[in-house]
User: Fold these one by one.
Assistant:
Number 1:
Amino acid sequence: MARLDIKADDALLVVDVQNDFCAGGALAVPDGDAVVPLINALAPLFPVVVATQDWHTPGHASFASTHSRDPFETIDLHYGQQVLWPDHCVRDTSGAALHPELVLPDAQMILRKGHHAGVDSYSAFQEADRLTPTGLAGYLRERGIARIFVAGLATDFCVAWTALDGRAAGFEVVVVEDACRAIDLEGSLDRAWREMGDAGVLRKDTEALLAPA
Ligand code: VGL
Ligand code: ZN
């Protein structure tokens, strides 16, 4: 297989590899822990590594409990449709911590998102109101980044929204498929890949980055 060479203007975004999305967590993604060794192998290749943390207030608008509803129902909030989740990644709890086996000594930025009580943020670039930027696009541009590689959890939510918004912000985007795992709620994974494909997001496996030159 031809190797995809990492360049000085590439960044790796490690999305939400947090305890609550891994085995035993409040919103465990099936096989979520499996992304950790792959991300640990990828990270040293990149000149810029950014990790994100889903970082919600207690009583966050994305929590089913806040609305006295059941998890995985959908409701309309002031900014549009919102899937309701079990309480997860409450700021400063062990569930919100990065996975203990994630080894990212070279990560230069940790971005927390979803921290406003009334608005969710699957995307690392923009909150779900589609108005409030996180500042990530500006950070990456100032660092001279042209292409981002996205890995982490979950493929069909935070990874996909981050990849799509990365394209909208003008970056080339590659999702490292085998370094992601999905929730897959009512066809969300197929839909996410379709939307990412339509937006010009490339889909690669770790092997393409690690293969001998
Ligand atoms: C995520 C659902 C709720 C994710 C975050 O990281 O994909 N999914 N909050
Ligand atoms: Zn969340």
Number 2:
Amino acid sequence: MALYQATVSAPVNIACIKYWGKRDTKLILPTNSSLSVTLDQDHLRSTTTSRADPSFDKDRLWLNGKEESIEAGGRLATCISELKRLRAVVEAQNPTAPKLSTYSVHIASRNNFPTAAGLASSASGFAALVASLAALYELPANPSQLSVIARQGSGSACRSLFGGFVAWEMGSAPDGSDSLAVEVAPREHWPDIHALICVVSDDKKGTSSTSGMQRTVETSPLLQHRIAQVVPARMDSIKDAILRRDFPTFARITMQDSNQFHAVALDTEPPIFYLNDVSRAIIAIITEYNRAAGAIKAAYTYDAGPNAVIYAPKENIKEIVELLLRYFPQAQPFPDPFALHVDNQGSIPDGF
Ligand code: ADP
Ligand code: DP6
Ligand code: CO
């Protein structure tokens, strides 16, 4: 009996220009384009194994060892059925190919970091799911084509199908066919940029990205200003900064955009607070670090949660870690040397 199985890992990506808002909630079409950095494979990642077998009676998914339901018409079901549809095209072109599109699939995935805690597990999770099914089905699709499917699982997932610096172009086609991820520059273009993850809390967040951003779309006037007046120019400027390897410009835009995203969350009714005192303390520490240096040597950014991601040239990482350990002495490396577990007992710097 043949075994039809494939395992793929996908890393998380952390946005510098944030996606926050959908113009179409079913197709997951965003209200603005976004841009992120995909972390290296040995950092935070999801690893997903997909198996097709004629004896399976339905599609099933296990996340971190626990079975999750696959709701009809839901995001998981959409991704799986889109990939089966592409497999059926392969089978039609090649009559000797096994009819995997007619079998149910079992999918098992694990994250090596906290799930649903604002560290982009939906991004690596859906990217790994789509990539593992594409490998199982031997689809001829390129990463941008697969990104259109991953996008329908979780918007941010489309960007994790590329490494390096990645844009999600919002597109304009009503069917979403041009709302996809494109590579801005590969990782090797700027290997000097490193990401330091500061895990402030690994609790599940109170407001999911999906429900939070929908509430923002419905209630925030600031979001309308952001998507029309702010993001388009920032997308152009940050792409240009990446291509020129201009860290101060890259960093300034990244921090501005994180701040505006959290302002938009606060402008939502009722307001959404993703940052906590420790997050704000880390903002103060990085701000003071840059001020004292008279140059921008590090950038903070926060997704929908209190955990900080700090982008900096490699040569600065050691002193940034030492600086953070001074304020949060009980911080533990987690789960690799460039991720820190920051306990919320730390002191807040004076004068902020
Ligand atoms: P996060 O900030 O971690 O992205 P979200 O609220 O956006 O949090 O999404 C969390 C959800 O993403 C989980 O509840 C789960 O439904 C889905 N998810 C996370 N990891 C995986 C995975 N490895 N495979 C499939 N789905 C996943
Ligand atoms: C703050 O992609 O998790 O991380 O599309 O509803 O699944 P859904 O939301 P999700 O939102 C991510 C929001 C963000 C910013 C970003 O990653 O661009
Ligand atoms: Co998410």
